[in-house]
Amino acid sequence: MPQTRAVRFHQFGPPSDVARFEAIELGDPGPGEVVVRMERAPIHPADLNRLEGRYGENPDLPAVGGIEGFGRIEALGDGVGDLAPGMAVALARVTGTWSERVRVPADRLVPLPPNLDPDLAATLVINPSTAWRMLHDFVSLAPNDWVLLNAANSAVGRAVIRIARCQGWRPLAIVRRPELIPELLDLGASEVLLDDDGLRAALPAVTQGAPVHLALNAVGGASALRLANGLAPGGTLVTYGAMGRRPLELPNGLVIFKDLRIRGFWLSRWFRQSTSDQRDSMFQELIQMATNGILRADVATSFPLSEPSAALTAAAKDRRSGKVVFRMTPGSTGII
Q: What is this structure's pTM?
């Protein structure tokens, strides 16, 4: 049976300690399946959580890492529609993308324009989809409405800023470090404020008293409370991450008297509950934004697949300027 090489873990623990570059069984594509030769695969915070055993759904062990990536179709099983060898595809709703080859159901692929930047293609699914859904699924935003978001320098935060501006809304970015302010303003944020105790007093002057109906929280703790204080009565706070590793700190009175909506978002759940038409429609929008240069790749550094410990150590560091990405060796057969 054909084999390939991948980054796999046999136990949960510190990601850089448990990840191994090793041979795995690949197998030939069956009905409805394709084999994709991978070119890029990013490392997300969720990937680190999976290796640590702290994700919402832990995999059966041993498991190959990676929940997103980009490659080109190499082999086809029967009944895969219009797919063809050489076609550029992103992988959605799959695990195990840290591999030189993957065998996946054909309906988990997102066909892409042939000349899309590989780094952008590899990061087009998880973060932009999260941003798109949070901006469209919870509040009916009107033109020029404000959207509050913390962790604005994160990959999701940057996608929120880019998509919100494209849709005619005003992203109000909240960050911990003042040196990020000029960069996020250049990116398209309508305003950038510091995530500190002065935020509550600063918001009304920035928004000129306009109500804020949506806030996106990736931090938790006191930062989430500051977002909640900035919402108008009846506003919605959507939590999708916990970078601060602190629980929500919302006083009862704030919820009672402002009647805030406290919601959560998990892209994996949305994928399970969505229809193929809903997924196709969203991906068409995101691909168009990528083609038009609205969405861009923010990659800090890359590593070969054979160096998982170094890559995962880099991905765990704070204050990165973008994603850490695995780059598969061009021209490698990946078959052993």
A: 0.92
